[in-house]
Design brief:
The structure is a homotetramer of 373-residue chains.
Chain A (H helix, E strand, L loop, with lengths): L41 E5 L12 H13 L4 E3 L12 H15 L6 E3 L5 H13 L4 E5 L8 H14 L4 E5 L9 H10 L3 E6 L4 H11 L7 E4 L5 H6 L4 E3 L7 H12 L3 H19 L6 H9 L13 H20 L17 H19 L4
Parallel strand pairs in A: 1-2, 1-8, 3-4, 4-5, 5-6, 6-7, 7-8
Chain lengths: 373, 373, 373, 373
């Protein structure tokens, strides 16, 4: 299950490894930044995990998916995120996913590996293992199930950061886990060089700005990534370094384009694509149980994800078919897939519908003007 | 209490008034847009209300404040908003506030008058009255106290829009009132020409984009205003038409500047000011009961607001003094007021503090590199 | 609008009035308890308000309703509560409702009058007016719209209690208004003899016990009333003094019976009725906008409430008809109204349905035992 | 890790095991109830887990604790609950905890084993294993981290119930996991004989009554247990079959007494103890991170729990010492432990304090009567 068993050699990632405690990074540095590694930036795909008929991880398909994503321009890969349903994998499976992804990526893009385990000791063991696989950093979600106070969130991340052999990013997802507040983020960023960034999935721009204002004066190397692509372009426009966005499993070309357009300062064009990705995101997020809508979207791009681990009723399976047809229509508008044979019903934003409604509206207004209404 | 009794003539607003049912707008048009009025845009100040020693509305000070704001560049005025504590005024006082503001503005800027009363009948009576005072439109907050379903929110606004003699804007403030969801907004925008915009105080950019995507294809005249200046610049960058922002009571120059910079496409400069207004906003919002922090801020600009209508304990009054000193320091950095004589403690974003912390951090990193730590 | 104009004389309430500041109670005492008035107890009906065709308060029907309730055993009346839609009445209408109710009650039962107005000054004026009408006490809901901190909630009630000429009860309804927490309740109870009780509509028994534990050692005269009849019997069983329950507008006989049974210590029988009132309460609460379901229920008892002040769509009016038929079936089971001519569909708790399901279940279990399944 | 390896023979639990698919129960029955097993009832302790110096499960102390609880009258044991921090144990540790507890209990009391694992397949494997250890039933918490719809919650439990070799109880804890709503509970109870009860930790009596009303007509064998001892006595008074209460780790005598008193119909006496346990529960719940306050309480009874797995800051450790002294004072009032040498500060409910405040209050009232105030 180690990188080595996959024929993977860490040297491929361009890093010389010496020492023993801090495996995966040279002993002469502790944080990646201090070692000349660049700040995290760009779109990291929180990888969906394909399964085979028996419900096991489908490794060949995972490899094919990883390479397809890299070819379509994602800047990095993020296995074991919420999109990767890390909580529904066993501890062994989580290790295996990272090993396979790291091996397939072969250093072409950096890897941010989700490393949260049952407790700090297990998490540190995962950090050790992932460091040995050459990942760029680990991502640790805030404690979940129990809702902890900021002091305990600090204690948790502090204990990990103090002992981790590898750089780590905080992962704030308040709808699922204990929130990480701004003072705690500043405290962690100020005390632990190992903490090199935060992924925030709240979608709250004011919160993102508060974090930036609190941390950037201390740490120019600290990365701010958004996990909520409903606001990807605005987040990049206000200064985020990138995103880890479930939609990049489905439309890696588009999330990349939004990133590139904002970097180039072309905000108007970025916003056009943002409105389109918002429609897609909403269609994958709300009518499905997360992340099944994203799985359905990625299946339309030609991958086999198999049945998810959360059981579905027959009613849900029927719904899924209908909802997937809607996704196909949206993706067809992007010219990324064919339209379904049965055609597409007009959607709210399509010109045809709007025209009818607008004509009706104009007629009403005209009639009003003339005093008929 | 009518405009006339204040020596105010509606003609000053450049409108010819004929007919009797639709007072305030020419009988040949129903919606302002159809009458050639421009779409609402820019920063509308949700006016704080000064009180005198006896707890009555301080009309001379209100007039002085209104003119000061207009001179500092606000695009419009919005009496009887949440910042204006409309729920703490009597029905008579709400009328009086609008009458005074309209009279003082003398058509220099358009007025958006909060017109929500105890029920639809009373609200329509207020709409009539405000139309007679020459306001540009009324703003109606979603039903509050009871939390209503979308169908009831639609029924409520529909009943008002069907009978209002004046254009109206919806006011969505889900932390205080029943939320107005996207389908309801689209439905109202599609059916009622009188509904010409929405003020949204959720601060949620994805929600704003969803509204725009749903309504703009139908109604190019529909205005989107944000009530959450924590994200004012980003909201303008994604296409909002303006804002109704409590902070514009305190720093009208700055909210205007942010608006102008985004209109000019100078997003980078706009964001610099956005970060600064965020610090001020947070300092006025969180440690005080709303809107007392904004009152404290506006007092520093030279106005007398008197005691608010929500009683305070002596502990709160002591806190207020200390918190106001912090506000004075922030405003002094804007070069809008003097620094307090007692000086200013360093704040989180100030260079001095940050430098110390950054030096500590750099030293730690250096020691790590050298293997000392 | 005063009691006198209704031909009402305060002497009817059996109280001699002297002095001038504290109208409505003898000048030799301040709190009702100190004057020999008994602690509030029993079921107080938060009165629905009938309206006529023109949308005005239907006073004759209100009088008929008041007397009907008294005859059916309610212990007291509570005009201007949430059920009475006090926020949808004008300030004048609220006064009128109390005047009519007080006049009609003629001292037969005590009155707890909702007196919350736009601000403390207006609220105190209402307290004065209601004291002059001979009500037993006023009820003041916590500040709403703005969500206040405990310190501000304390300041608000303290200011009122310090100046009120009449006893008052706190009204905690956290789903609609700022919550009143236990330390604040204790503080108010400990400092202000005028504060003689609390109505709590949270339905949270632990919270009720925490209040009792905090206040009872200080104030044996302090009344605890529950506004959530979903748990009326349990609340009485743990020591509440009574309730102000919307359902008592519809089934005053049953809420009285539950009260009497718990006072008599017959908890088992009380719980039987509790389960039945829970079914009715849920059927009036969830499918309707509050309080329209209770209005529909009371209409079935023979009163005309007219259209409510919150507009309804035609879809909502159609739903209301169907939902009212369900209410009629539930009330018919209580033998309080006739069954609808169209008959009643089986409800979840009815024996017929359950028997079928139970038979199916038993058969399945039997088949399992025999190894067939 | 199997029962056998602990020298435990399932026959001790008085069950003959035949067949192969349904290990742990005779092949001639599927549900425990059909096999003559009684309905779950009484207080099941959700066991805290002691750890040794190295952070490993302290098995000798766990055994000592189990026997101590049984001797003090708990009706059953519930390892791997939220109090047992099942999410902070590895999959192997969870198995080990149940094995040790089952072996130590030796059939003296029934065991309800928390069996939720990463996914359905792993959960079913745990069910198999626990069936082999002779536990009475398993408890499965609703899916957590992701918040699922009722349809998915149904699908999840349905898949488990369809395949489980052992009876199971649902575990509803909406503050930590996806809520299980009443229709879903009814659906599961109606379709799956294996589902024999629910543990509900919402503390909501209305919800409990709604569940009972929906399920009891179908399933007389279905058990309702409350996990919220703040309302233990009221829940028992309205008809709950028992509870799984963290406080029973600390005061097993008292939770047992409350159960016995309510069974005997002595509600008044039960409520006296309920008020006292509420004070203790609040003191263990709110100021600590759950379940550390309960661990602190159980340590005062003479057990060594070691450091928990959630790290603590030094500030938290200092707080813990002070808070534990308060717990000691409360437990001393129960005459279960000695008072701390440093003495006890008066608490809110203590007679001494109350007397002072009451005297002050009476004096104030007297002065008012005399017109001095």
């Amino acid at each position: 299950m180690q990188g080595a068993s996959l024929g993977y050699s860490r040297q491929r990632a361009g890093q010389t490894v010496r020492g023993n405690r801090h495996r995966g990074v040279p002993s002469t540095c502790v944080t990646g930044y201090a070692c000349g590694l660049t700040k995290l930036h760009g779109i990291f795909t929180p990888l969906l995990v394909p399964q085979d008929e028996r419900g096991q991880i489908n490794e060949p398909e995972l490899r094919r998916f990883v390479s397809w994503l890299i070819e379509r321009g994602v800047h990095g890969l993020y296995p074991n995120g919420s999109t990767g349903e890390f909580t529904r994998l066993t501890a062994e499976e989580r290790r295996r996913v990272v090993a396979v992804v790291a091996d397939e990526a072969r250093g072409r893009v950096p890897i941010l590996a989700g490393a949260a385990e049952a407790n700090v000791k297990e998490t540190l063991a995962a950090c050790e293992a992932y460091a040995g696989m050459g990942v760029r950093a680990v991502a640790i979600v805030a404690p979940f199930y129990y809702k902890l106070t900021p002091e305990s969130v600090y204690a948790y991340f502090g204990e990990i950061a103090r002992n981790s052999p590898i750089d780590l990013t905080l992962y704030n997802i308040p709808m699922f886990a204990s929130p990480i507040d701004v003072p705690t983020i500043r405290r962690l960023a100020g005390e632990f060089p190992r903490v090199i960034g935060i992924k925030d999935s709240s979608g709250d721009l004011a919160f993102m700005m508060r974090m930036m204002a609190a941390v950037r004066p201390l740490r120019s190397d600290f990365a701010f990534l958004t996990g909520w692509e409903a606001v990807l372009a605005p987040m990049l426009m206000i200064g985020c370094d990138g995103g880890t966005n479930a939609s990049s499993n489905v439309v890696p070309e588009i999330t990349r384009r939004i990133f590139d357009l904002t970097v180039a300062g072309n905000h108007q064009e970025a916003m056009k694509w943002q409105f389109r990705i918002l429609e897609l995101f909403d269609a994958m997020l709300f009518p499905f149980e997360f992340p099944d809508g994203f799985r359905a979207g990625a299946e339309l791009r030609g991958f086999h994800f198999g049945r998810g681990r959360q059981p579905q009723t027959s009613a849900q399976r029927a719904d899924r078919t209908a909802l997937t047809a809607v996704l196909q229509c949206i993706l067809a508008d992007f010219e990324l897939v064919e339209r379904p044979a049965a055609g597409c019903a007009p959607r709210i934003r399509q010109v045809e519908t709007d025209k009818v409604e607008q004509v009706v509206f104009e007629v009403m207004r005209e009639l009003e003007k003339r005093g008929v209404l």
